[in-house]
Design goal:
The structure is a single chain. It contains six helices and eleven strands. It has 266 residues and is α+β, with helices and mostly antiparallel strands. The protein folds into two domains: 1-205, no CATH class; 229-265, no CATH class. It starts with a helix and ends in a 7-residue tail after the last helix. Residues 11-210 form the Reverse transcriptase Ty1/copia-type domain. InterPro entries: DNA/RNA_pol_sf, RVT_2. This is Retrovirus-related Pol polyprotein from transposon TNT 1-94.
Length: 266
Amino acid sequence: MKEEMDSLEANNTWELVNLPQDRKAIGSRWVYKIKKNADGTVQRFKARLVAKGYSQKVGVDFNETFNPVVRWDTIRTIFSVAAYKKLKLVQFDVKTAFFYGDLQEDIYMHQPQGFEDGTGQVCKLLKSIYGLKQAPRVWNERFKSFAMKCGLKQSNSDPCLFLNDEKSIYLIVYVDDGIISSVDEQAVKQFLEKLKSEFSVVIGVANYFLVSTPVEKGTITTDHSEFLPATVPYREAIGSLMFLAIVSRPDISYAIGVLSQVLDKP
């Protein structure tokens, strides 16, 4: 919690003011999460302050909320181009990305629980925080402005794809995660340096793993001697796996197709 508050204060997220008589302050709450390693061991404990956006009033605390999300076929196309041209994919994650969004509305929020100063003042938000209805939108606008200053052009076919035809730079962004690739590795390096000077980011090479396609023989078994109990969420599991097959795991498509044939009596 202290680390989160330090980050908020360092980013000049709010200023303490007296609440105007004609306004109501929204609330906030702490959300806790345990981040684990791939082997299941605990990596760290996280606490995040989020606004109670459900109490915001349209036309007062927010207006537009739409935020684009990259299309899956755009991601697959860029990956295909990178594979064909043997380009290196560099992945980045903007830490506490929503804190960088600039708000257009005046929003007042009660001081975070456990960190009240006893004055009765409220936080007038100068920057966006998680939980606000417009938080994803204002972050996206901020990143778009930054990308265009770096010489990239927003694609007409997908607002989350940015290009530089001269240097063959391809950049896709999914909320606060992004992947960039180019035939000019120096251009990628220069962009990442500008990115680090503008935001707090974690940078690494995009990982991949090899799988058998279709699924290896013997992985799926058919046993008609008994059915799964009704309490087993079989259909929900198939729905989730279908999403993975469409988005990032084409190798499981055949297996999911076979398993989908017994949705009625699994």
